[in-house]
Design a protein that fits this description.
The two termini are 20 Å apart. It contains 3 helices and 7 strands, in the order ββααββββαβ. α1 (22-33) crosses α2. Helices cover 38% and strands 34% of the residues. It has 128 residues and is α/β, with parallel strands linked by helices. Strands 3-4-5-6-2-1-7 form a 7-stranded mixed β-sheet, with helices on both faces.
């Protein structure tokens, strides 16, 4: 099965992509539910596209195993690095507890594995 990645932030130093459609659906839903938080998350993505990963752990932190999370108030967006200065966002959620739910981390790992398998087999579609 192929995997589609969609460019989220165009014309920047780093390319920010959404792997599959889950991130796009999450961002659209958050713009409707909590526009101010969604705008902060979008600004964080734009900043990261221009300057790379934020150093401030209040905005971005390493979860382990090469996975990171962008943080905008209660919204979280999990992601990982790939070659060619690519930030690949896997899934997002609204935080309800102190720690990132293990199910969300496992979901991000599964999406990353699907992406890597599609890339190796030549079944990766990139939408700019």
């Amino acid at each position: 099965m192929g995997v589609v990645i969609q460019l989220v932030v165009p014309i920047a130093t780093y390319k920010v992509y959404a792997v599959g459609s889950e991130v796009e659906v999450f961002l659209r839903e958050q713009r409707r539910r909590s526009p101010k938080e969604a705008a902060k998350l979008q600004a964080l993505l734009a900043y990261s596209a221009q300057y790379g990963q934020p150093i401030n752990e209040e905005k971005c932190r390493l979860l382990g195993d090469g996975l990171f999370e962008f943080k905008a108030n209660s919204l979280r967006l999990l992601w990982f690095w790939d070659s060619d200065c690519m930030i690949l966002c896997t899934n997002g959620f609204a935080k309800k507890r102190q720690k990132t739910p293990p199910t969300e981390i496992e979901r991000a790992k599964a999406i990353r594995s699907s992406y890597q398998a599609a890339k190796r087999s030549g079944r990766l579609t990139i939408k700019e």
